[in-house]
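Exam review. A common question shows you a sequence with its structure tokens and asks you to describe the fold in words. Practice with the pair below. Do the first one on your own.
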Amino acid sequence: MIDPKLYTTVVHAGTHPDPATGAVMTPIYQSSTFAQEAPGQHKGWDYSRGTNPSRDALEAALAALEGAQYGIAFSSGLAAEHAIVQNLEAGDHVLVCNDVYGGSGRLFRTLMGKFGIEFEFINMGDLDLVKERVKDNTRMLWIESPTNPTMQILDIAALSEIAHKAGAVSVVDNTFATPLFQRPLELGADIVVHSTTKYIGGHSDLIGGAVMLNDEAWQEKIRYVQFAAGAVSGPIECFLLHRSIKSLAVRMARHAENAQAVAEYLAGHEKVTATYFPGLPDHPQHELAQRQMQGFSGIVSCDIDGDLQAATRFTQNLNIFTLAESLGGVESLINHPEQMTHASVPEALRRELGIGESLLRLSVGIESADDLIADLEQALAHI
């Protein structure tokens, strides 16, 4: 259940009437540069790669949303992740949950790994294994919960404690849960990262990322990368994202309600062999999810009874669900991870995780739950 206070937070965070005009909404400051009264003397903004009033307002909203001191906006979720790991050094060791978003794994393996940083992908559901794999040079634990796409729930508090005992930081990708359903900083995490393209944006019309945290030293390091590398959000994207935050609470309540209904329907269907949703009582980490989360969000994964041909036929016969990458928009989407979002994951790891030709990931939108279930019903009849 969403904390009622957050309904107020999302509407007002980072928003103040414009002092020049009285505009209720923060204007779009579509300017790359700002006039200076004298060399080095300005009104707080000099060049929009560094700071921009539209981005300042968004970052204040992002911080309030996650209950953090600092919010830092980026041009994409992967740009936000890159800014974090770019602060590591050659020889550092990072433990990564093995069921991590495919783009994150690709970033770690193919880009950052060649600079001498060791990324080790392990099952973080096994806390004893995590403790065993921590090394003297372990600097970071990279946690994603719920995981993408198999919807595992990882114990953020316990993993953060392991990180801290090792002198490492814990980073949590909170994209699936959003700050309304999960509060990693309150559970002991050091850094929270989001693809704001997803639920926070919520309308499939922008690309963005965010980092939220309380640690001043890490904030300075990440913000320096934001400025020096330049992967910043433009003023229009900042405006759109700030606008979207205002409806986040009402949207997430509906996403979660619909996903629960869809998951329960799929779990009882004879042509569905497995359903992965933390709100189902038979989910392996259901109890942990109840302790750690305030709601189960809107992503449901399932295995259908069939092969790639059957999965393809099913997706092609849907009318309301759209076959597309991404998630978290108001419209319902369906994705085939093996062929789409997780195609870059090494095949052996995909098999280990159960990301096969029959696995589908549903991003359940805010339409009528009855209509969504009817759409799934008629499409399942084709396999």
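Now try the second one, then compare your answer with the model answer below.
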Amino acid sequence: MARFSIRDIEKFTGVKAHTLRIWEQRYNILTPKRTDTNIRYYDDADLKQLLGISILINNGYRISKAACMCREEVDGKVREITEHTVSDSNQIMGLVSAMLELDEPAFNKLLNTQILQLGFEQTVIKVLFPFLKHLGMLWMTGTVHPAHEHFVTNLIKQKLYVAIEGQVPKYKNDSLKFLLYLPEGESHEIGLLFANYVLRCRGHQTIYLGQNTPEEDIVQVFELYNPDVVFLTVTACSTIDEMPSFIEHTASLWKDKQIYIAGKMCDGLKEHLPQGMNWVKDLDDLMEQMDRNKKAN
């Protein structure tokens, strides 16, 4: 069973530490445990309860009423809210709760509900990406385990694989051929998988090489496929100091081709990219840049 400090609880739920202490004193909402050295901590059940109460409070419930509900009643009200509203914060909290319990049915049900309400693309943009950003912050502060990250990223990738498989190619006269890959050392492919889905939806052809692709393999595929556009993401495989040389080398490999590069490692270098290489903030930015380049040519 995990142990969470009051600061961890604040990061997960958005409930400020001083507010939580008031709730404990005034409403006896829960009783934190104590270590042998008298330091207060919370367990999984406490966190689950507070996540639910946080969702109720954000949807108009008074804390005095929420505090009187039993665990089952809170869970029931939360299910009603997450199934019938499209509030991003509600869905993110619901996904966090399902992740912490490694509850695959609950996680999938939340996602499926959002997909029915918003569509697949908007669910990824408005719910999944903010959820993953929130997860990354929690992971960096040590408040979630790597197992939680592996659990949810694999569930999300399964959704993306199914969505990509369901795309029937409808190529147009102006369709472009894309080569998508992650360089060696890169393993975070959810963003690239989503780019693959979006490009296919818009009638473009794609060759997807995935994560941790050796350069020699990329070169061989490039020669066989002769893509119009190369798209890659860099988030971890290089340090900031290594990025300029990595960018120059990548640009030299694909001369006379449009290269789109995404990822936080490139953020500070976007004004100094070689000709033909474009930094991409998000998928809307990718589409806008493609349109501009098409008109310019």
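Model answer, second protein: DSSP finds 13 helices and seven strands in the chain. The mean pLDDT is 83. Full marks require stating both points clearly.
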